[in-house]
Structures are given as structure tokens and as C-alpha cells.
């Protein structure tokens, strides 16, 4: 109970700091001002110093928002070192008319606060801070802190850690850029699907031609493209591209009712695909058409369409080689000749998935810590999202265990209007982080109490 009482005594201050941080529109996308990003960086660097981190520095890379790096040396030579990761940048708010309150004015909601970035990822950064405060800046393990400022858009930092392995050397990492399957359900994420993008184009005519005079014989580029896209899935909605890895999912997943509510699926509209939701969302592939260039309905002319283009997003199994997955999709599309017409297929950005090893001492400590934080055994899930830096950190510290948990939950509306965080999830995450470093240190013979 001493740990919980300590954390409870810190919550008012943590909430105040979270509100200060969430009020800063730290958007690192092109076209947004750099000032708020710098402001968020400076605020966090100061909070870490005040929490007892003796070494806090700014890491600058080309065309990249500043990275906060901090370090606390291990209390004994035998103590392990834990790297804590988070990010202080946020997604743009999107259409502010869809928000119930201004996105950068933290606003109370039932049990929590609403603001852009308050869950993803500022709540998790504050949870790291809470653990450090609980131990008075002297945790029972060595600490390395990495808080980046351009995770949402991507940057040169994604590939930087392997070039500086000594800086990122550690025994375990807590990647706090996600959270629980649902509020109140402690969750460890063990896998991240990989992702790639592919553009497919069709040009059939020099220019549009009158559909009454030429339609029926002149090849319609949009029809060609739609026929090609229709081959990507079978009659059930499962991905039909050969060679994309799919396995049964044996972890925890959503109920269909939860998923329909989260996705906003309309009444009477079925889900697509077969198998469990975990298999469809995490251990199998997904292909989504994320963009389409063709005449708009509003401005459509009675003409055969000469050119059409689509952008596809492929998510693939965490253990599948990213180039192999990308090439399977590209080869499938290039092999098609809808109505005898060839396609132009251009592969784009490709990022690997990640599957964490389980069963080591840090994993066991995390299971115990999550149970202490939430009062029940942890579940494990994967995610279809990606955290680009994870693979870079894993390459820099190949022997480190990687743990993915945090204060978000799948119902927090991250990347959507009205994002929110619950105080109960933040509080329990701080308890779990404190318990984790205690349990992990004890496993190395260096236990301590908060």
C-alpha cells in the first residue's frame, strides 16, 4: 500500500503538469510553427531535471525536432538499466468543428481530461515523470530517458539509435506509446504489424472522350483500376494476395460489439473478413485504399476517364520480412491486366513490424507490475499501428527486452477528435511503472521501495 499511497499523493501535481503540457500545440508536421514544439521540449526537460534526473541533454538531428535524452546511473554495479521512451509531439487536431472543446484547452470529462495529444503520448511521458518522482529521482535501476519530438510525422531519429549504440544500451525498454485494450484491463502489447504503401496508376487515353460516342469500346481507366483493386480481397473480405503471412491469434481481443463501437460501424453493416478479430487486426494482413484520384461526382463530365490512381496501405504480420510483404503486393498488381490494360505500380515507404520476446525477467516483472497497478492479471495484444523507433532501438540494444504498455486505452480517440485520457489509467500506469523497476531490480538482487 505504501507505493499506491505515494503515487496517489503525486496525482494532483501530475495532473497539473499534464494540463500544462497538453495546452501546448506541439505539432511537428510541415506547415506548423516550431515554437510550440520547442516550448514542449523545454517544459519537459525542466520537469525531468526537477524530478532528479542529473543529466538531461538535447539531441539535435537534421530536419528533426529536438530529442530529450536523460540519464540516471545505476545505484549499484549489479543494477540493470531501463530505457524509458515516449514522445511529446502530437497529431494535428483535424477539423476543429468536430471537437466538443478547443483541442489545446484541456477540458474535464468524466474521469479524465480531453485534449489533442493528452493520451498519445503526453500521458505516458507524465507517467514516466511520476515514477521518477515516486522514487525521489533515485530509482532502484539505472534509467535512460528518450522523449522524441517528431514521432507522429517521422524523422531521421527513427534510424539513429544503431549509429550510437552506447547511448541507448540498456537491459530493458519500456516503450510507452500505447496502452490498454480497454479501460481497467492491464495490457502488454507484444507485436506491431509492419506497414508499407503502394501507388497503382492507370492511363488509357490521351484525354477524356465523350462517353456517348466512345464509351463501351474506349478503355475506362477508372474501371480498370477498380477491377484491379477488387482482386485484393476474396468474397469474404480476406486479403487474397498470396504470400502474406496470416496466423491464428491466441491472445486477448475485442468483442465484436466493442470493435463495432470503436470503429463506428453503422447498424446493419457487417464486418469484413473471417477468423477472429485478433487474426484480422494483428496476426494477418490488411490492405486499405487510403486515397483515390479520379473525377469527383460533383464535377463529373459525361466522358470516359483517361487516368486514375490509388494509394494503398498494407499492414503485415510482425515477423514477415517487410520487403517480401511489399513485393508480394507489388507483384500481384503487376501481374494483372484488367481488360488487357497494364498497371503502373510504384512501391513507397516500408517499415518493419516488431514482435517482442516474452518470458524473460523484465517480462515477468512487467506482468507482476501490471497486476499490482490494476489488480488483475495482464492480457496481451498486438497492434496494427506502428512505432517507427522501436526497431531502431532494438537494433541498438539487441539483448534488451522490449515492453510496450502505457496509459492510453483503445477507446481514448487517439488521432481522432475529442481525444481523452482517464485519470485512473494514468494513476495505475504510474503504479505499474514504479512496481516494474522495483520488481526488475529485485530480480537482479537490488530491490528498493518507493
From TrEMBL:
GO biological process terms, semicolon-separated: proteolysis
Annotated keywords: Hydrolase, Metal-binding, Protease
Peptidase M20 dimerisation domain ranges (all copies): 191-335
One Pfam family here: M20_dimer
GO MF annotation terms: metal ion binding; peptidase activity
InterPro entries found in the cross-reference section: Cyt/Met_Dipeptidase, Peptidase_M20, Peptidase_M20_dimer
Lineage: superkingdom: Bacteria
The protein's name: Dipeptidase
UniProt organism field: Streptomyces kanamyceticus
